[in-house]
Amino acid sequence: MERRAKIIATLGPASQDKEVIKNLLKAGMDVARINFSHGTHQEHAQVIQNLRECTGELNRTVTILQDLSGPKIRTGEMADGAVELIEGNQLILTTEQVPGTAEIVQVNFPELPQSVNMDGRILLDDGQLELMVKEIKGQQVITEVVQGGPLKPHKGVNLPGANLKLRSLTDKDQKDLEFGLSQDIDVIALSFVRTADDITQLRDAIQTINPERSRIPIIAKLEHPDAIKNMHEIIHAADGVMVARGDLGIEMPPETVPIVQKQIIAAANKHLSFVIIATQMLDSMISSPRPTRAEASDVANAVLDGSDAVMLSGETAIGEFPVKTVEMMASIICQSEEHSDEWGRLSLDITDDSSHDDAVYITRAARELAQDRAVAAVAVFTRSGRTARLMSKARPSVPILAFTPDLRTYQYLSMLWGTTPYLIPHAESIEEMISHVDAAVIEGTPVKAGQEIVLIAGFPIHKMVAPNLALLHTVQSN
Predict the structure, then answer these.
(1) Do 265 and 330 sit in the same domain of this protein?
(2) For 211-261, how does the pLDDT look when each residue is reduced to its tens digit (9 = 90+)?
(3) Of 428, 381, 433, 369, residue with least CA distance to 409
């Protein structure tokens, strides 16, 4: 059985050269995430070039995901590279630009003094370090170290419970967005989304920069309590969501995160939206060749609950075993999917706003037809990728073969659960469409001549309309 859930691997210092990228692709990387919280445009351009060269040499496709850094509050530079915070000591946080020491550290948030409360908590470095506010003086917040440890430059700062007024799309994001679109990236992830309006603002920015890319898929990263309150509106506005458990587990009590994760997966599937589970999935493999049992269970449960993709961050970006980590994640996914009929918890209910969508019902009918006739695959013709996404969300028991004449759609399709993309010429008739399918299927898939497939398309074929046709087809050799 082929793996269905997709693997997103973050590229970084440990994984950006061509040899490692090739091995990541062979190990199972479907989506390459480029984290714009780190690195320069020149460095990212080189990684994108390496990716494209590797996929060309291996005759593979990979979706390139640009992850915008968003309004992340971070510490500034350190005088000696890192400082040690001692429990009980005083630490001054300042909005002024100063080299960081064990006594004073810069924070890149001018409204910090107005945003904190006396005796309020401030968490640094994904919650590893904890401070308590003792005094506010001008541009300085004087704190006491509650939980100490090493602090490096550019580490995240969280203010649990604070009512922050931050734009989701920052000036830096705007410049990074322009760069990403110039590099023809395939998907954009927006950090620290709080409302559906954040997605609208990003879509408007894309429209202004490059109207041709106005429908590029957008992933909303859900990592703040406000995003959970507005979850359904955000899911409706975006093309997919990412459960970003790092900041979510800091802003909310950690014990609530597993339930919130399940709620987001269920809501995304109900809205027929793409859903990714991210952060610390195989975190121990940053420095160990094997994951913990708990991490393996975490990946398995994300798959069994119905997520479309699982993501690796530091494990592949800076870890010692990036290729082994992808191989391990692929192995866990495959083992989980073998038992999905027994333990899977995916609901195929849909929202009322999808109940009058003919495309939804065509894909659901195709799934039932594939099941009843024991066909070898479902073949989908798509221009924008929407029909393939809907077929993916229907979760058929056989592979989805997605055929498109659009290169950008072809690049994006690698991200969809259970879907293998094929780039074909535009078809003008059903006969021509079927001819393309037969040629591609026999050459590049396990499907053999004489086997049946279900084929979905919009008729008339040359108009590329929404899907309204599902037919059984016996694959013919040319």
Answers:
(1) yes
(2) 999 999 999 999 888 899 999 999 999 999 999 998 888 888 889 999 999
(3) 381
